[in-house]
Write the structure tokens for this entry.
Amino acid sequence: MTRKERVRAAIEHREPDTVPIAEWIIDYEPASLVLGRPTFLRGKARLAHALWAGRRDEVVASVKRDLVELVRRLDLDMVCADLTYPRGLTWEPPEQVDHETWRDRHGNVFRYSELTRDLMLMQAGERGYEPERPARDEWQEQAPAERAWKPDPSELEVIEHVLGELGGTHFTFTGMGRAGLPIFTALWVERDLLRLADEDPDVLAAERLESAEWSAARMPFFARLGFDAILGGEDYGFNSGPFMSPETFRRVHFPGLRRICEAAHQNGLFYICHSCGNLRPILPLMIEAGIDVYQAIQPIEDIAGLKRDFGQDVCLWGGVSNHDLVRAGPDEIRRQVKHAVESCAAGGGFILGSSHSITVQTPLENIMAMLEAAGRHPRPAPEPVPA
């Protein structure tokens, strides 16, 4: 089997020649260890500072080169390629307030997290921190059968390179969204929970359905490029459980999620649903909506139990705790790989990977232990260097 055929077999619940292994995201620190050089892949705060300094072309060149090499060095079966930063935009640098805080002219306040290497939005300003782009309608073309859509050609630099290098052999997917400054925030959680509690659920459902229609309008473009799948979703819960009851999920989120899944399938694409949290109570509804792959499976969800109860209906992607990839040793990582493969591989419907992504502070030896325990032959650079 080719890598593409291996993943397709797993998603279609046909047992492949070997368990597929993949990562959606690998942060720049572990990526740099594998590559033996610094990279802007998932570059977090250092990437934001590079864009503020006008180094867009350097960033894009790094991502193009390093993403392909990283997938090959780690012997992975899947690769995610997204739209990149367009030429011609200027990211205005904010003012540095102290050693860990910045403020832009619109009042947005960012703070650096040493733990995650992120810049975090701590206070929202009077307007957003992204530079203005052409209005959405300027990217639409009139067509008789669909709302056609296309990005600026410079936004396709990474996608075109990755598909040209790996599209014929590897399973490829994309998130479709435009590249923005890598600023993390949790401010939306309180806002959305208050809206769930205070507003008419039908109003919220209509908003999500409208957003789903916009995503559906983009899919024909990405299907024509040659992608195998779309990755989407949002965080639906905490480790303790979903943000909402199954009844509220069906009313608010289900219609939009079903529309996105339908659009993906109509365009010959699989739909990978990324969502953090312990989602077992609403997973049957996510499956009913039409998701093909469930990614970001928290350890608390028990992937073996999910395989037993839902494995005939959805492909599970995970099995190794990303927390333990950072904190535990290689023996524990090998144990988790063995458990996941023995519990989930039979009959297909399983892709091995971390429980979310390979994050900063992950030791190279743990990455190697995970891949080698799965029967892969990773080839990190001879002299790994820190980011």
User: Anything to note?
Assistant: The domain at 3-86+146-373 is CATH 3.20.20.210 (TIM Barrel).
